[in-house]
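Dear colleague,

Thank you for sharing your sequence with our group. We've completed the structure prediction you requested, and as agreed, I am returning the results in plain text so they can be pasted directly into your records. Please verify that the sequence below matches your submission; if there's any discrepancy, let me know and we will rerun it promptly.
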Amino acid sequence: MSLTHSPDMHKSLIARIPFQTGRELAEWFAHLESGPAFLRREERANWLADEHGICDRYAAAIVHEYEIRRRMRLFGA
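Please find the predicted structure tokens below.
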């Protein structure tokens, strides 16, 4: 599974997540923070997809967005 999307595809996936999954991004981020401590993005996305039964593309987009926002919190932007 490729975890790299174009910026436009990523924005589109992120915008559809609440509708497609029934959960807001903040809820998904909380799941990532309370879940297993995987080192690799792909491992986190696979866990999220398997554990919560969501499409792997949405799981990858959630993990990618989580990492973007986490970097912004830690290092400012």
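Summary note from our side: Residues 7-75 form one domain.

Kind regards,
the structure core
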